[in-house]
Each structure stands twice: as C-alpha cells, then as structure tokens.
Amino acid sequence: MSSSKIFVARLLGLDVFDPLGDRLGRLRDAVVLERGPGRRAMCVGIVVEVLGKKRVFVPMTRVQSMSSEQVIASGLVNLRRFQQRGAETLVAAQVFDRRVTFLDGSGQGVVEDIGLIRQANGDWAVDEYFVRRGTPGRGPFRRRGGNTVVVSWNEIVFGDVSEPQGAAQFIESHDELKPADFADALHEMDEKRRLEVATELQDDRLAEVLQELPDDEQVAILSSLDTERAADVLEEMDPDDAADLLSELPETQKESLLQLMEPEDAEDVRRLLEYEENTAGSMMTPVPVILPPEATVAEALASVRREEISPALAATVYVCRPPLETPTGRYLGLVHIQELLRSAPPEPVGKLVDKDLEPLSDLADVQEVSRMLATYDLTSAPVVNDEGRLVGAVTVDDVLDHLLPDDWRSHEDDAVVRPTGRTNLRSKGVKRG
Prior knowledge:
By secondary structure, the chain is an alpha+beta fold. The protein has helices at about 90-95, 170-175, 180-185, 190-200, 205-210, 215-225, 225-235, 240-245, 250-260, 265-275, 280-285, 295-305, 310-315, 335-340, 365-375, 395-405; strands at about 5, 15, 25-35, 40-50, 55-60, 65, 70-75, 75-80, 90, 100, 110-120, 125-135, 150, 155-160, 290, 315-320, 330-335, 360, 380-385, 390-395, 415, 425. The chain is elongated and about 75 Å long. It holds the Pfam family SH3_actinomycetes.
C-alpha cells in the first residue's frame, strides 16, 4: 500500500517495479514544480536510472504506489534521457542543502529532506521540510551542527536561487555509485554545478571519476583546482590516464604539475608522455603485476588479489628478470590467472609461463593492439621496448577508450520501455505532465 506521506530521502536508491514485480530501475531523484507564492510545490515525477545507467523521467501519473520500501509504476516509460525543464526542480540535486530562512524570525537553516503528501485527487504535493538550523559548513563531508526541525511548507523561504547549492549532500546521496556512474551524473550537469561537486570530492574519489569523463571536462575540472591539489589528484590517477590528461594541457601548466608530483609518480607519467598518441606505449599502464620466475603461485595469487589491481590487470601475471619495476629486466612471458588457479600453491610461476604469446612493441599502433587482444581473447597484453624489457601492459579498456568516439557518453536511444522490462523501439512515448 502506498503511504499518504513520505520523505524523499527515503526513496533515493529504491528499486522501481511494475505491478507484476519486474524491476524497471532505481529511483535517483524526484522532480517538483513551483507554482508561485502562497501555493504548494507539486511533485510531478521521479527520475529513474534504467538499464545502461541512463536517467529517465517517470511522471507521477504512472506511479501507482510509493513507500519507503519500493515504488511501483505502470504504463509506458519514455527512455529518452531526462532533461530538466525551466520550472522544474530536482529535489536531491537542487533542494537538499539549500539555505532557508524561518519566517518566524528564528534564523536560518539548511534543507536536508522534504516530505511529500498524497492529496485526495491523487497528486503529490510538498508538505513539509526537514531543516537543520544554522548555516552549512565548508569542505568535503563536513560535520553538520545544529538541531533539526520539521516545518510546514509555508513556514520558510528559500534564499537567492543564484546562490550556489552545497554539493556535500549530492555527494553523500550518490556515494554508492561506481566512478563511471558518478561521472555520468557529472556529465549531465552544467559546467558550474559540475565544478562545485567535483571540488567537494576527496582526492582519490575525484581521481577515479576524472578518469571516466570526456577530455574537455577533465581539463576544466583540473584547471579549476589550485596547483598543489591538482598535482595530488594526478598522483591518485592511473599513470596512463594522468598522462592523457596532462597531454591536453599547455606545456607550462603540464610541467608545473609534474614538478609538484611525487618523483616516482611523475617519472611513470613522463615516460608515457614520450610516446606518440595511439601507440601501445601511450595507452599502457606501467605498473602491471610483475613477478620473478622464482615466485610461487601463492605469491602470484596474493598479488592479483590486491584491491588496487583492476580486474583487467588481475587476469595476468608478467614474469621478468630483475629489476621488476618497468622497464624491467628481460621479459620471460606471462601466466594467465586460470593457470594459477589450476596449479599447486608452491609451484614457481617460471614453470607456468606462456611463451607462445609474443609481446607487443611499445610503438605498435592501436589497430595492432586491438587485433592481438581480440585474436587471443585477452584482457591485457604485454608491451616491451626494443631491448626486450617489459615497459607496461595495455588493457582492453585502454583500447576501448581510444576506439570509441569522443562523444560516446552523449549517445542515447529513443526507445520506450514498458515496466514489464520489454522494450518497444519507438521514438514516441508518454508525454511529460
């Protein structure tokens, strides 16, 4: 049964189902429409993240039931990407963390939630605000102070709409998103809002998200940071992604950032910057899993288990003579993780080496790299220099980044999906209302 009153924060992240129990997607926000002074704002729809991480609009006329456990919608849902209209406001993205003034003269506060009430005609209206008294602090994941109160919709007034909305609440409510999904959310924002949110992220999280954004947005965000923080963020990025980003910057800015980075991190990035674009050397990571031939299977499995190793790199161990930092000693071959899992823990990895797979030259072009990965069903491939030393490994995701068009994140379909999960490839569906 649907609740007659519910707070939006309790809805965020809930699954949205059709009446038969098939999952449509996940609720990410609610859309309210302001109707002028002295009148309640109305909730006109919800924003649902569907398959492919696309966010679409579901009008409230399609919402049959809404509670703190689940949301049920019926009818056709238009799969065109949600685009906010002028009079519409996103609750989680734009109302939460907004500053308000109490009309009784008791001071100011910050909105942390809004309560919706279902009226007799079935419409959902904004009824109450959950407000924390005082003014918001600054800085990532700030500690909030002040007591909280629930007030009626007509007991507060919002501050100047041009005042930037705090970004901490948005970050907290989207903290569970994977970096690529968080990057998608940033990509859909206007530039001002994108910079506000990006600036509030902690360095390691910002580094993960930057790697998933288009080049121009990466450059804009990095350039908005002070130089020392920008260098810290670059240190948190994968060396190949940091090199790609730095290559988009003016030479003086690039060099000043490299000078501020830790020498070891800067050295890895400088080596990658020496290669021409679209070569194996320019797209590889210089820090794959590398072991000497005497290392055991147990040691190899422990190495690929490390949290910082990506799934693509964890599928392969590269065996080399010391030194084991790239460029290594003589490259001997690779061991696939399946072979490690089939072998006894004390077995030396040198006895399991696949010597038939020829490594890539660091000067190989992207077409040669992609052919090798596709031909041998690899997630990563070794890259050596002209002396036969391992200088890195190129992964399938590195290749995709170079093969996909620059604007691939903006591509979308005009499909219409039924909440039963069946897709109807039509360009027209339900209208906003």
